[in-house]
């Protein structure tokens, strides 16, 4: 009679004599991954997608097909119309507050000094790279400690038109939203913080004092 390729016969011991030849195990075969798509939504922490399709379905107990869709985290800083997203998505670039005195002197000499502002943040997460800064210009990063409150000054040279804000200052962030920062001079030193408040009159202490770039 006809031979049916049903792998259950191996358990019930009633396979046709030519079962192994006639019913060769064929595993699933899939294509290569497609290119990654764009982010699902602009101006949000969301995901992107890549796909693949089935070239050969599994047969006769062959290996099942793997996942045909894969997602990865994604953020786009520009809308579909090409305008910049809200400030809270842009990582803040910071450096030591000691750089501020020289910058203020230079701005005053040019007649361009204008009032800035300061923002207090609570440091939530810090990468280990901040503690291993070997160069003298990066030693200030060792003052970054989880849980500490830091004061970051937005001076005139870092103000962006027309908003007159510093990138990454968290002005448009929601309450208790985690914001990202990156230390200038050491790409391995970065982390997250939460915005506490803005101070229009700056009085940042000498320690735990930083600048927006």
Describe the protein in words.
The structure is a single chain. It is built from 3 helices and 10 strands, in the order H-H-E-E-E-E-E-H-E-E-E-E-E. With 213 residues, the protein is mostly beta strands. It folds into 2 domains: 9-76, Thrombospondin type-1 (TSP1) repeat (TSP-1 type 1 repeat, Single Sheet); 92-212, no CATH class. A 6-stranded mixed beta barrel has the order 5-8-9-6-7-10. It has a two-stranded antiparallel ribbon with strand order 1-3. Strands 2-4 form a two-stranded antiparallel ribbon. The longest helix has 12 residues, at 99-110.
Widest beta sheet: strand line-up: 5-8-9-6-7-10
Low-confidence stretches: 105-109
Q: Largest sheet at a glance?
A: 6 strands, mixed, barrel
Order of helices and strands: HHEEEEEHEEEEE
Q: Name the helicity range.
A: under 10%
How many helical elements? 3
Q: What is the SS-derived class?
A: mainly beta
Q: Domains counted in the coordinates: how many?
A: 2
- Could you tell me the mean pLDDT? 78
- Which strand-content bin applies to the residues? 25-35%
Q: Please give the alpha-carbon distance between the first and last residues.
A: 81 Å
Overall radius of gyration: 29 Å
Query: What is the count of β-strands?
Result: 10
* 3D shape: elongated
């Amino acid at each position: 009679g006809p031979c049916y390729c049903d792998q259950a016969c191996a358990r019930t011991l009633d396979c046709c004599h030519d079962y192994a030849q006639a019913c060769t195990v064929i595993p699933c075969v899939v294509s290569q991954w497609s290119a990654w798509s764009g982010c699902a939504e602009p101006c949000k922490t969301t995901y992107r997608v890549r796909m693949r399709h089935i070239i050969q379905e599994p047969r006769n107990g062959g290996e099942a097909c793997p996942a045909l869709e894969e997602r990865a985290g994604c953020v786009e800083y520009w809308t579909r119309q090409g305008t910049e997203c809200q400030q809270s998505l842009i990582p803040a670039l910071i450096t030591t507050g000691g750089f501020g005195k020289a910058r203020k002197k230079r701005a005053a000499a040019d007649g361009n000094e204008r009032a800035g502002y300061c923002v207090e943040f609570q440091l939530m997460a810090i990468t280990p790279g901040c503690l291993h800064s070997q160069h003298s210009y990066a030693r200030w990063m060792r003052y970054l400690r989880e849980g500490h409150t830091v004061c970051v000054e937005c001076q005139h040279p870092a103000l962006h038109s027309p908003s007159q804000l510093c990138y990454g200052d968290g002005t448009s962030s929601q309450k208790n939203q985690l914001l990202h920062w990156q230390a200038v001079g050491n790409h391995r030193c970065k982390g997250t913080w939460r915005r506490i408040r803005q101070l229009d009159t700056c009085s940042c202490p000498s320690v735990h004092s930083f600048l927006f770039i």
